[in-house]
Amino acid sequence: MKMVSPAFAWGGHLPARYALCGPGARNLSPPLVWSDAPRETASFVLLVLDPDAPRGTFVHWVVYDLPASVRKLDEGASGARWLREGRNGYGKMGYGGPCPPRGSEHRYVFRLYALAAPTLGLPAGATAAQVEAAMAPWVLAEAEGTVLYGR
Q1: pTM of this prediction?
Q2: What is the pLDDT of residue 151?
Q3: Residue 31 burial (C-beta neighbours within 10 Å; 0-12, 13-18, 19+)
Q4: How far apart are CA 65 and CA 67, in angstroms?
Q5: CA-to-CA distance for 30 and 117, rounded, in angstroms?
Q6: pLDDT digits (tens, 9 = 90+) for 89-146
Q7: 38 with 68: CB under 8 angstroms?
Q8: Contacts 24+ apart (CB under 8 A), 63-66
Q9: Is the Cβ–Cβ distance between 92 and 123 less than 8 Å?
């Protein structure tokens, strides 16, 4: 399975428009496109994580129960009524962009999972830990990309 963004390259820098703070920050969820999911895929899960956060991995976005027919998320998709989103590390629903401490550059890991289950049976606002536990027996494939952001 493959995942790309038309707005940046994996291994490069996240444009400020997708960040919560810093010059040019707009806190927009970034566009993503994926392909080559296993034939048995019934749904997708997307997690965006910062493993370099001072207090442990910080969750920036949790999306689950994405139908198998969906193969992209447009820029600013977070908050759409059709999208089932969880709670981010800021304690809010949906996407919360990067805001690392000044002078440090963090990695932001985008993980997309193809699942054999059409739904995880979780309510809106589930945490990343709840989603990870519920999806564990259903994972068919994974795609991952990392970008950097600092201010």
Answers
A1: 0.97
A2: 86
A3: middle
A4: 6
A5: 25
A6: 999 999 999 999 988 899 999 999 999 999 999 999 999 999 999 999 999 999 999 9
A7: no
A8: 64/120, 64/122, 64/126, 64/131, 64/135, 65/118, 65/119, 65/120, 65/122
A9: no
